């Protein structure tokens, strides 16, 4: 099943409101790097050993509190130039100071809405970044077309030979989170008058807050296969693995290298 434009916008607005209201407490739980980042960066370094030693231009879609920028600055020796996109300015304002070697150009953008409107590409750099990443964001997109367009946009932002790093949240692997998601979805859909959800789509709350929801999609391995197979630009998958969470498998990471 698919959602109409009005429902997509309502789900996007719901997630935007969640982060605006819970920016401080959410950011407080998102300070340490994810375990998977080191493995993803190791795959990049193996494919291009010189990349982290020279000037590096990065696109970060859904940058949150900029913790990936701090992580990357600590692991690269050259200057870092970043275009960071997100629509939650309070999350960015909670970020720790960027390292002196990092120049960060934060641009406030509602990425999900831009994807609904079909004009994300005009907000992205083209054929120029060494690396483009989207961590902890893909699951907030409610339509398969949005997820396809985002992956295409990331690939189009990097130069030939550049890298795309993406994580897909597979939260249904955790029985506790799955149970919370099912309960929050039943309650939230009834309270908000939302239509039936497609398979893999849920609402999740936050800590003990009432009536605060974010939309989350559990990506299956088959769905990830399909997204990569249908990329508009030629890319080679150089790594795919699971990491993060207590079980070590709640995020599926994909590392792609653009060929042309």
What's the layout of helices and strands?
Layout: H1 5-28, H2 35-47, E1 56-61, H3 67-75, E2 80-86, H4 89-93, E3 102-108, H5 111-117, E4 129-134, H6 144-157, E5 158-169, H7 175-192, E6 201-204, E7 214-217, H8 221-229, E8 235-243, E9 251-258
Parallel strand pairs: 1-2, 1-4, 2-3, 4-5
Antiparallel strand pairs: 5-9, 6-7, 8-9
Characterise the protein shown here:
The chain has 260 residues and is an alpha/beta fold. It has one domain (5-258): Vaccinia Virus protein VP39 (Rossmann fold, 3-Layer(aba) Sandwich), CATH 3.40.50.150. The protein has eight helices and nine strands. Strands 3-2-1-4-5-9-8 form a seven-stranded mixed sheet, with helices on both faces. A two-stranded antiparallel sheet has the order 6-7. The longest helix has 24 residues, at 5-28. The protein starts with a helix and ends with a strand.
How do you describe this structure in short?
This protein is an alpha/beta fold.
From the structure above, extract its key features.
Rossmann fold, 260 residues, 8 helices, alpha/beta, 7-stranded mixed beta sheet
Integer-rounded radius of gyration? 18 Å
CATH superfamily: Vaccinia Virus protein VP39
Named at the architecture level, the CATH assignment is: 3-Layer(aba) Sandwich
Highest CATH level, the class: Alpha Beta
Strand neighbour order, sheet with most strands: 3-2-1-4-5-9-8
> Which fold does the CATH topology refer to?
Rossmann fold
Distance between the termini: 34 Å
Main beta sheet strand tally, sense and closure: 7 strands, mixed
**How many structural domains are formed by the residues?**
1
- Uncertain stretches of 5 or more adjacent residues: none
Bulk shape: globular
Number of strands: 9
Strand/helix succession: HHEHEHEHEHEHEEHEE
Strand content: 15-25%
Which class of secondary structure composition applies to the elements?
alpha/beta
